[in-house]
Specification:
The structure is a single chain. The chain is mainly α. It has 2 domains: 6-85, no CATH class; 93-224. It is built from 13 helices and 2 strands. Strands 1-2 form a two-stranded antiparallel sheet. Helix 3 (55-67) packs parallel to helix 6 (93-108) and helix 9 runs antiparallel to helix 10 (158-186). The chain starts with 5 loop residues before the first helix and ends in a 6-residue tail after the last helix. Residues 154-159 and 184-193 have low confidence and may be disordered.
Amino acid sequence: MTIYTPEIRAKLERYLATHNLPKGMGSEESACSIAAINLAISGKMTDEIPDCMSEVIGCATITLQDAMPDDMRNSARYKAWLPTAVGTGRDREQERLKILMDWMWGTVLPRLQAFADEKGFGGEWRTMCDERTAGAADAAARAADAAFAATRAADAAVDAAACAARVAFAATRAADAAVDAAACAARVAADAADAVAVAVAATRAADAADYAATRAVDAAFWEKIDPIGVLERMTNLEGKS
């Protein structure tokens, strides 16, 4: 088990103060969030989540840091948060996953309600966000797919059709995340398979936000869904309320 010492944290903070975090893994001169952590811990350029860090937080970080705008990923707030996430451990993964899933259902996906209403599948979308089940998300994805097919058949704007398809992907990812989270919660033993299920569910929940971020959504989408906020809440469980 890696011990996250004050010296490692200080090294990470120095790196963050003097380097930009890129989309993708990057290089030693400009490493992604997880690679920057590993450079501070071992000096190795890798995007493997260190064993002293929550895998839920790590998986969400990998997806969200790539999806969010560059200025958000390199903001003072994000760079202040990242060193606090490293020593989180893996004994409270279900709590962290619940925070992430609640954010996906209650904050990210409802931001697309106006678009769903406009394209004719608003009822299914609202039901999905209210019920928060894989079945409701599948129904919303099918409705969005039907809207996509109708738009293409009518030879309307390609951008509108592409956006409908990406919205359907968001719903599909939400359904996948719900299935994985439910399977994970049903397990009694905290074994390796359980950890894998948690990580997959976390990745898919974060993916839903990525797929939802289309240009049909208002320009302030990322500020309004506040991905740094959900990362902070998953890290600081005692202060999440």
